[in-house]
Amino acid sequence: MEHRSQGLNSNSLTLMRHCLNNLMDKPDGQELVSLLVSIQSVVKNIGAAVRRAGISRLFGAEGSVNVQGEEQQKLDIIANQTFINYLGNSFATCLLVSEEMDNVVEVENEKQGSFIVCFDPLDGSNNIDCLASIGSIFAIYKRKTPKGTAPSLEDVLQPGRQLVAAGYALYGSALMMVLSTGNGVNGFIMDPSIGEFVLTKPNITMNQTIRRQYSVNESYRNSWDPKIQKYIDTKKQGDEPIPQRYIGTFIADFHRTLMYGGIFLYPNNAASPKGKLRLLYECNPASFIIEQAGGRGTNGQEDVLDIQPLTIHDRTQVFLGSKHEIEDLHTCLNQ
Ligand code: AHM
Ligand code: MG
């Protein structure tokens, strides 16, 4: 008689097993796996807090203001503490950079490991109260200073090209984690019946079809570079204008662009003359992932991954999309 289990099929590839298969034979692979396991626990915790937010009264503003001058939300604080707590106790990290904290966090001496993690613990805070998708995003570097010595800012301020892994979690209609360790991009959905992330989108590859969709906050149009205005105008011309989509949560807009193709733009504008999105924990991990999926991320001049960060909270304008879309944009910018 055949027995069908409701839960995990023994052939299902969990995120944990994926990490073990792909990383254990790499230098520092074991430590990286243990770090990724900790990040998985962080995401499960934040995911649970997001789902409970209404009944636990976690919605709404906390009252404090973070380093970017933004009002912090209760969930922001919980998410940040969860990241710091799990990663600081993983024995795999030495320095942590969070969007929510002014300074780099140094892990206790006896718990220091080989990696630096830069993260936005809860991206899209403005969407918390209306139940639209929010997310967490992270970038992992290997330290340059030898283990056993004091880590320094030089370990943190590395161009994105040096990343060893990057990923994000999307707290949407399902809880999804997308991860790249530099060998393609894979997507895992949380199966709540077994509490595991299961591979549902292996080898994510960007749709390269031109004129798919574009994603930008057009309310800033008047203060964009006129060349960007002209590029966006081309999307609206003809009998079949290109659909515009914008959620206002970077990870959600990025994830849709990765899944469906097209382009995401956050250009300089009067309110954010040097771009709004942060290099270390938003633009770099997204660019790493999109390159791994066959797309491209630039600041209009160079690949985001080649930018040398000067401070931990640097911002940049950013364009992320399929190679053709980015080429089209650059052609407009160079005219
Ligand atoms: P934050 O919630 O981490 O501060 O993120 C900033 C958000 C991004 O998620 C999103 O892409 C952007 O701000 C939207 O900005 P705007 O409202 O200017 O379009
Ligand atoms: Mg945030």
TrEMBL record:
Pathway assigned to this chain's UniProt record: Carbohydrate biosynthesis; gluconeogenesis
UniProt domain Fructose-1-6-bisphosphatase class 1 C-terminal: residue ranges: 212-333
Primary enzyme class: hydrolase
Keywords attached to this entry: Carbohydrate metabolism, Hydrolase, Magnesium, Metal-binding
One GO cellular component term: cytosol
Assigned EC number: 3.1.3.11
Cofactor(s) named in the record: Mg(2+)
Xref: PANTHER family: FRUCTOSE-1,6-BISPHOSPHATASE-RELATED (PTHR11556), FRUCTOSE-BISPHOSPHATASE (PTHR11556:SF1)
Family to which the UniProt record says this protein belongs: Belongs to the FBPase class 1 family.
Subunit structure: Homotetramer.
Protein name: fructose-bisphosphatase
Organism: Tigriopus japonicus (Copepod)
Source taxonomy: Eukaryota, Metazoa, Ecdysozoa, Arthropoda, Crustacea
